[in-house]
Automatic annotation (TrEMBL), chain A:
Listed transmembrane segments: 34-56, 98-119, 131-154, 174-194, 225-248, 282-302
GO aspect biological process, one term: transmembrane transport
Species for this entry: Natronorubrum thiooxidans
Pfam families found in the cross-reference section: BPD_transp_1 (PF00528)
Similarity-based family: Belongs to the binding-protein-dependent transport system permease family. CysTW subfamily.
Protein name: Spermidine/putrescine transport system permease protein
Membrane topology: Multi-pass membrane protein
UniProtKB/TrEMBL annotation, chain B:
Principal place of residence: membrane
EC number: 7.3.2.6
Molecular function in Gene Ontology: ABC-type tungstate transporter activity; ATP binding; ATP hydrolysis activity
Compartment(s) of residence: Cell membrane
Source organism superkingdom: Archaea
PANTHER family, sorted: AMINO ACID ABC TRANSPORTER, ATP-BINDING PROTEIN-RELATED (PTHR42781:SF9), SPERMIDINE/PUTRESCINE IMPORT ATP-BINDING PROTEIN POTA (PTHR42781)
Name of the protein this chain belongs to: Molybdate/tungstate import ATP-binding protein WtpC
Record field: catalytic activity: tungstate(in) + ATP + H2O = tungstate(out) + ADP + phosphate + H(+)
Annotated family: Belongs to the ABC transporter superfamily. Sulfate/tungstate importer (TC 3.A.1.6) family.
Purpose: Part of the ABC transporter complex WtpABC involved in molybdate/tungstate import. Responsible for energy coupling to the transport system.
Keywords for this protein: ATP-binding, Molybdenum, Nucleotide-binding, Transport
InterPro entries recorded: AAA+_ATPase, ABC_SmlMolc_Importer, ABC_transporter-like_ATP-bd, ABC_transporter-like_CS, P-loop_NTPase
From TrEMBL, chain C:
Protein source organism: Natronorubrum thiooxidans
Record protein name field: Spermidine/putrescine transport system permease protein
Taxonomy of the source species: Archaea, Methanobacteriati, Methanobacteriota, Stenosarchaea group, Halobacteria
Membrane topology category: Multi-pass membrane protein
PANTHER family: PUTRESCINE TRANSPORT SYSTEM PERMEASE PROTEIN POTI
Similarity comment text for this entry: Belongs to the binding-protein-dependent transport system permease family. CysTW subfamily.
């Protein structure tokens, strides 16, 4: 039987068997069938947990079961009063957290931009090994990496070992706020570097050639072309680093040595030792709001198609 | 025979294809031509079954195929980007439609490759990603033919090839159409290819067919200003009609010298708004020798190889016109820039036309 | 004349400086990992000078029963997480990149949002939710929790692959008589298989290295990262650097495989 006869035998309305079976359960037809698992998963274990944080934040102190009708703002009141009166850790926690996140963002930007620029415009050879070296740390557990810094910084640690071998003796910064910032810069640096790298690599080379043709020097090319066109990457990277470093806990715990409190370590403390879920949740709600807003902004800006075309042309 | 009745496609409030009717004879070569965004691709996708029409009916040899799926209707679409399967060899690509029906290829691959003028020995086991544009085009064609479609739909498949290759493939497509008992429906924005290949031409704009007929008919008798301009490079003279009776009109134009009366019918045809005359039907000469002409100043003379384009400006209206003349003519009268002359033509070559939609 | 000779030298020199800077950044990123590796070979009970080479912590790590049970729990979590998130993430990626449907951009935003959440927020929210819903704590809740964070990452990786495929390819196949099953089996999946495999490897490595989510949902189970964390903060043992280093070696190896797969697909 020829293809023509075969196809003819099905004309006009015969849908093939698989598709007909699929049509019976039309809700499972692509794309709905492909979307449903992810949506169900996220509705259950992403939306649910976020809702719990919000709901628990308005529960009376020390409850561990939800009674939505008995809502109260006690937890928020405690935080606000604590911050205003200066008693307790809230004032210090807020200062520490904002300081750490802001400084981390600024330092990560200062370190990443030249690296991203070099990677996008200067590096031709060894590009792949360099890219791999830059992403490797992202795939190792945060606490293991931070612990590596502890081993590096502690008294008689790896730093002393290396410094000693060249006759250097420097005081360690471990268990200070600087050590915590070192940790957060370290952990979140790639989140700054890659968005900037992608945005610089999307700049068409011919644009720079055109700028050079029109008499722009290297500095002018950079200031008037590259810098403004890489702005989306800088914004995404900064939001990323700022939000993620707000959640820094292990860094503070291990490198701050239990002396530096951040919002995340304080939240974790409320859950762990003092078993006060509502208080922890109320502190988490602020973080949650900032995170959600920044996440949506980032995702609205990101164009996957563009990233895919960059990857393909590499 | 393929028959479309009141075919319509709406996207929200925009109408992409508006109540289109046509009939295409089995085995003929039909071309749908129009500017980009005119709805021609939407029309083609409805014929292929990738889009379902908002209203209307498509019938093939009397059978309604409006709602049948692309995989069960005997049409095959050759895409503009060819859409070959990049992970398969040439042979595997061509085998795909045969495999999909669970049938055996039985040496069909070789025949198909020969049909599209590719040497089976050399090409069958090549990876499609290693082919040139023209070769990919031929493989895409062979793959569609392997499906043994009653109707082969082609969506500007030559657009991304160079000019010489386009010419060559155009000729081969016409030959292939003559060889097979398959209807070819070709969509393009390029008038030139439409004129060369087709038996039947549909000019489409804003979702409607504005004119249909043989290439010759449409070229000779464009139905309105849009078609005339689209069909070939033409000069347009806006006119006022002062009198219309007995299938004739009398016009008024401030500077047009010579004949002012033209045949124009039938009575229900919209009021004409312009005279259209093709570039190559006009000449520019120092004195008025034809029955119809307009005083102009020569602006530029461009050598086009075997002809010359003489650009002129109307002294009163500030409009610009172009004449395409033979090189001998131009050198005989030694036209130079800023010369005063007459743009003129034989009145029989004048098309008196309504404005059209666009 | 001197201008001309400068011109050829200066760019070379400046390119060298850029490379030098990148090497510094990489050195910074590698510092803690190398510190771990160095410490893992030191013979002292606590890491201290002078340095003496030993392999005994590696053998201790491999024979310790508590490490073995931690490896066991980690495997029981990360294998289901890998399978589930690869399937769910790939499905999401195919839906987002190969179909058009109303609300598509919202779907992308919601589906990828978990990537941008600090893990501690996800962890503690999940922990309370597990209590409220009666889901409880242990292997299964940990699997579900990690899948929430990792599926979006797989979706991201596979989307990048799938967006590189000719947007008309399914129509072309359907046009030639292929049904949905054939299109998936013979056309779409073979074209994005490299993206799926590297997404799967990413999923496995990320699950293996996850700390925050699992620490909130594990209940009484001890996984490798939580075992290491416990030993870091109380009761140090030199087995920690050795075990952490081993995890790093394996992650590195898998990652290289994944990158090579991605590279092959983008060629």
């Amino acid at each position: 039987m020829s293809v023509r006869e075969f196809v003819r035998s099905k004309v006009p309305t015969d849908i093939d068997r698989f598709d007909r079976r699929l049509a019976l359960v039309s809700v499972l037809r692509p794309p709905s069938g492909l979307i449903i698992p992810l949506v169900v998963l996220l509705a259950f274990m992403f939306v649910g947990p976020i809702a719990s944080i919000v709901l628990f934040s308005v529960q009376p102190t020390n409850t561990i079961s939800l009674a939505v009708a008995d809502w109260t703002l006690d937890a928020y009141r405690e935080i606000v009063q604590g911050t205003i009166s200066g008693k307790g850790v809230y004032g210090e926690v807020t200062t520490n957290t904002i300081m750490i996140s802001a400084l981390t963002t600024v330092i990560a930007f200062a370190v990443s931009y030249p690296a991203a620029y070099a990677l996008a415009t200067k590096v031709r050879r060894f590009k792949l090994p360099i890219l791999i070296a830059l992403i490797i740390p992202l795939f190792t557990s945060v606490n293991i990496r931070v612990y590596g810094w502890v081993l590096f910084l502690i008294n008689e640690g790896v730093f002393d070992l290396l410094a000693g071998s060249v006759g250097l003796d420097a005081p360690s910064i471990i268990y200070t706020r600087s050590a915590v910032i070192l940790g957060t810069v370290y952990v979140y640096l790639p989140y700054m570097l890659f968005p900037i790298y992608l945005s610089i690599s999307t700049i068409d080379d011919s644009l720079l050639e055109a700028a050079a043709d029109l008499g722009a020097g290297r500095t002018k090319q950079f200031v008037d072309v590259i810098l403004p066109l890489s702005k989306p990457g800088v914004i995404i990277g900064s939001l990323f680093v700022f939000v993620l470093s707000l959640g820094a806990e292990v860094e503070a715990e291990l490198l701050g040595g239990g002396t530096i409190y951040t919002a995340a370590s304080n939240i974790s403390y409320s859950f762990g030792y003092s078993q006060n879920w509502p208080l922890g949740s109320a502190q988490a709600v602020g973080l949650l709001l900032i995170t959600t807003v920044c996440g949506v902004v980032i995702l609205r800006t990101i164009d996957l198609t563009e990233i895919a075309s960059r990857g393909g042309s590499r | 025979m393929l028959k479309a009745t009141n075919l319509r496609k709406e996207y929200g409030s925009t109408v992409a294809v508006e109540d289109v009717d046509f009939e295409i004879e089995t085995g003929s070569f039909a071309t749908i031509v129009g500017p980009s965004g005119c709805g021609k691709s939407t029309l083609l996708r409805m014929l292929a079954g990738h889009l379902s029409p908002t209203a209307g009916q498509i019938e093939l040899d009397g059978i309604d195929i409006t709602d049948s799926s692309p995989q069960s209707r005997p049409t095959s679409l050759v895409f503009q980007s060819w859409s070959l399967f990049p992970h398969m060899t040439v042979a595997e690509n061509i085998e795909f439609p045969i495999d999909a029906q669970g049938l055996e290829s039985n040496g069909r691959i070789e025949t198909l490759l020969e049909q599209v003028r590719l040497d089976p020995e050399e090409y069958a086991n090549k990876q499609v990603t290693d082919l040139s544009g023209g070769q990919k085009q031929r493989v895409a064609l062979a793959r569609s033919l392997a499906y043994e479609p009653d109707i082969l739909l082609l969506d500007e498949p030559l657009a991304s090839l160079d000019y010489v290759l386009q010419k060559k493939l155009q000729r081969e497509l016409t030959e292939l159409n003559a060889e097979l008992n398959t209807t070819f429906i070709y969509v393009t924005h390029s008038l030139e290819s439409a004129l060369i290949m087709s038996d039947q031409l549909f000019v489409i704009d804003d979702g409607s067919i504005i004119q249909r007929g043989s290439p010759d008919e449409i070229y000779q008798e464009p139905v309105d200003k849009f078609v005339a301009e689209f069909m070939g490079d033409a000069n347009v003279f806006p006119i006022d009609v002062v009198e219309r009776a007995d299938g004739r009109i009398r016009i008024d134009h401030p500077v047009l010298e010579g004949r002012q009366e033209f045949p124009y019918g039938p009575a229900d045809r919209p009021v004409p708004e312009c005279l259209v005359v093709r570039h190559d039907d006009t000449v520019v000469k120092p004195s008025l020798e034809h029955e119809l002409g307009i005083p102009v100043t020569v602006v530029n003379v461009l050598n086009k190889g075997n002809t010359a384009l003489v650009e002129t400006r109307d002294k009163h209206e500030d409009a610009e016109y172009v004449s395409e003349m033979s090189l001998e003519q131009v050198s005989d009268i030694s036209l130079t820039v800023d010369d005063d002359a007459y743009l003129q033509w034989n009145p029989d070559k004048t098309h008196v036309l309504p404005k059209g939609d666009s | 004349m001197s201008m001309r000779s400068d011109r050829s030298l200066v760019p070379q020199l400046s390119t060298g400086l850029w490379y030098g800077y990148l090497v510094l950044v990489i050195a910074f990123l590698m510092t803690p990992l190398l510190s771990l590796i160095i410490a893992s070979f030191d013979s002292g009970q606590t890491f201290s000078l002078p340095f003496e080479f030993t392999l005994k912590w590696y053998s201790n790590a491999l024979t310790s029963t508590s490490v073995q049970s931690a490896v066991d729990s980690t495997i029981r979590i990360s294998i289901p997480v890998t399978v589930l998130s690869t399937i769910i993430g790939t499905a999401g990626a195919i839906a987002y990149t190969r179909y058009s449907f109303p609300g598509q951009e919202y779907f992308k935003i919601v589906a990828l949002l978990p990537i941008f959440f600090p893990l501690i927020l996800l962890g503690l929210g999940m922990s309370m939710w597990a209590n409220v819903t009666g889901l409880g704590y242990g292997i299964v809740p940990a699997i579900i929790g990690e899948t929430v964070w990792i599926s979006p990452i797989v979706m991201f990786v596979v989307s990048i692959s799938a967006l590189g495929v000719d947007p008309n390819i399914e129509e072309a196949a359907r046009d030639l008589g292929a049904d949905t099953l054939t299109i998936y089996k013979d056309v779409l999946l073979p074209l994005i298989v490299n993206g799926i495999v590297s997404g799967g490897i990413f999923a496995f490595v990320l699950s293996w290295n996850n700390y925050y989510i699992v620490s909130y949902l594990k209940g009484s189970e001890i996984t490798i990262t939580t075992w290491i964390h416990g030993r870091m903060t109380q009761g140090f043992t030199p087995v920690v650097p050795a075990l952490a280093s081993m995890i790093f070696y394996v992650s590195l190896l898998l990652l290289l495989v994944a990158v090579l797969m991605e590279l092959r697909s983008s060629r």
